Amino acid sequence: MSNTTQKKTLSKEQILSAVIVLVFYVAVFIAEQTIPSTSMLFTVLKKGATYALVAVSMNLLNGFTGIFSLGQAGFMLIGAYVYAIFTIPLAQRASVYQYYNGGIVQTTLPVFIAMILAGLVAAFFAFLIGLPVLRLKSDYLAVATLGFAEIIRAVFQWDKIGPLTNGSNMLRLFPTFNDFNIRNASGEVTIYLSTLVPLLISGVCIALIVLLINSTFGRALRAIKDDEIAAEAMGIRLSSHKQLAFCISSFFTGVGGAMLAMYQTTVQAKSFTTAMTYEILLIVVIGGIGSVTGSCISSFLFVACSEWWLRFLDQKHMIGNFEVPLLRNGFRLVVFSVIIMIVVLFFRQGIMGTRELPDLFRKRPTDRKKGRGIKA
Amino acid sequence: MSDPVLKINHLTMQFGGVVAVDNFSMHINSGEIVALIGPNGAGKTTAFNAVTGVYTPTSGTINLLGQNITGNRPDQITKLGIARTFQNIRLFSSMTVFENVLTAHHLRKTSNIFTATLRLNASEERKMREDTDALLRKVDLYDLRDEIATSLPYGKQRLLEIVRALATRPKLLLLDEPAAGMNPQETDELGAFIRRIRDEFDLTIFIIEHHMNLVMEISDRIYVIEFGKQIAEGTPSEIQNNEAVIAAYLGGDDL
Fold first, then answer.
1. Least crowded by CB within 10 Å, which of A143, A247, A293, B78?
2. A55-73 pLDDT, tens per residue?
């Protein structure tokens, strides 16, 4: 999705990439109007869009700055809660916060404002956590951020702050993706937008991240990833650059969390587990650490496999009188794990390596115009 | 006379019980090429790291042009005008030659993250790119502009590291064993190159080096340290005839 450049003129490859992205969006729009909205396709696209944004945010840290953070689930949780808390209609608060007298927050924000707020609060938490944690290196940082996510999950279920978070109960009845559909007076949907809008939100956010990565600032981040000591010797202040990258990544992870809330239609802290972070990490690794395009493609593939294409493995199948062995509830996860192991063992670079969409159209695959070609 | 470019006063660098640099004082005047030599483990690189802020000195002060820079962060010190290269090459491995040098131009940028992301710094960025190209032309690396830095031959990587340091526009350039691993011809070229950049970029140069031919040829003065302590100081010819230095290098119990 990198259709941006420092130079005024766009290269042929970049224009071609922009066209592909545009065609994708048009195709989704047409599909949405023609295919029944219950199709698994849309589930995959919606969740894929959400995961793509979070995966790209993670890639900004892991792939471009060299900060190995595993706090994604925590920042998504914060984003999801902030979004849900501030968008539940006033009339519904009494029923949602039934154990807490309707809760303490009695304002309802417009959906997009609430999404931005979700990102900002996540970024603020990232700032606080970043102060001590970013002094740590690699594995230690990963463990510390992982711990943070677990703590956040526990804290949000604490019933003392129930009036804010509804304790361990669900938050629900806030606007979801389906509310993006345009309805006529009698409530029938006239234009389906419940898949296109999330894809657009995600696309805009990812485009911003790409702009950032290819900017002067992004180059400083890559310098830090390549060699911290050399970067520092070139006058790049490590702490402020890392802190900013961490906050920005968390901002978009928070927005991703808000999108996940809309996708799920309910929010409950206990569902934001470490496994969720690992899913995102897997997406980043499978797509290629350091490739935004790779993260996008692999999140759709990942979601499609886990939600749709491999579902049949969980059901019993009969061929005549013969029952196909092994197919039973849970087998899907076994196959899934094997696929992941194969990818990690034999395709270390992931789907894209460090290439981006425009790189695919360059004549020579090793034409490193952007300096981020495939590693020898 | 004006302040020396670099003045180190009684620098001591201690790591636990190990005293890597012990009460070491020195100065470099403007335009000089001064070498720091000594046997392996003498504390030369530690002294460099203290000057560039990688380590905070246990005691002693470091002055750049009369300004006390002791305890500043490496990035601050670079901005004040000290650039360096590393003993083991530290180029940005995922970047091209061009990008490596471009990144060193960052310290003069005025853009912040928002202006950079929204491309409001386009004219500044263009200027940095033009300056980078001009510098690469000047040092004859322009032909290798789009190569990945770490795919260059070893000698060129060493050269690129110096050029990258030059791009920060330093007053004082610290070279940590720039000739390590170079063949005799490359070493000769390096000597000429160091002199040339001293003149063209109006530099003062502080160099750690083991190639004695190179050191004797280009240095105005030489400091010799052993076990963190200074054992000699003087012009190349004085050092060559200094008994303490000969003993330190060749070993000897007559001292």
1. A143
2. 999 999 999 999 999 999 9
Minimal Cα distance from B92: which residue of A? A226
What span, in angstroms and rounded, lies between the C-alpha atoms of A46 and A196? 8
Residue B65, SS3? coil
Hey, are the CB atoms on B73 and A223 less than 8 Å from each other?
Answer: no
C-alpha A38, offset from chain centre: 23
> What is the tally of structural domains in chain B?
1
**Confidence band for A351, pLDDT divided at 50, 70 and 90:** confident
Residue B101's domain comprises 6-250
Does residue B209 sit within a domain?
yes
Decide if B54 and A237 are in contact by the 8 Å CB cutoff.
Answer: no
Sequence-separated (6 or more) residues with CB below 8 Å from residue B223: B26, B34, B35, B36, B37, B230, B232, B233
**How many whole angstroms separate alpha carbon B149 and alpha carbon A148?**
38
The answer to whether the Cβ–Cβ distance between A234 and B151 falls below 8 Å is no
Q: Quote the CA–CA distance of A219 and A66 in Å, as a whole number.
A: 13
What is the structure's pLDDT at A364?
52
Residue B94, chain A, CB below 8 Å: the answer is yes
Q: How far is CA A327 from CA A43, A264, B33, B71, in A?
A: 24, 28, 76, 66
A367 falls in which pLDDT band (50, 70, 90)?
Answer: very low
Going by C-alpha positions, the residue among B157, B155, B158 that lies closest to residue B184 is B155
B198 domain-assigned:
yes
Token pair 């991703």: residue: A256
Give the separation between CA B189 and CA B33, rounded to whole angstroms. Answer: 16
- The ipTM is 0.91
Of A215, A222, A233, which is closest to B117 when you measure between CB atoms? Answer: A215
Residue contact A234–B168, C-beta within 8 A: yes
Mean pLDDT of chain B: 91
pLDDT at A200: 95
Q: What radius of gyration do chain B's Cα atoms show?
A: 19
- Within 8 A of B121 by CB-CB distance, chain A residues are 215-216
Contact call for A231 and B92, based on CB within 8 A: yes
Query: How many whole angstroms from its chain centre is CA B58?
Result: 22
Indicate whether B1 belongs to any domain: no
Residue B202 counted as domain residue: yes
Which amino acid, B223? Answer: Y
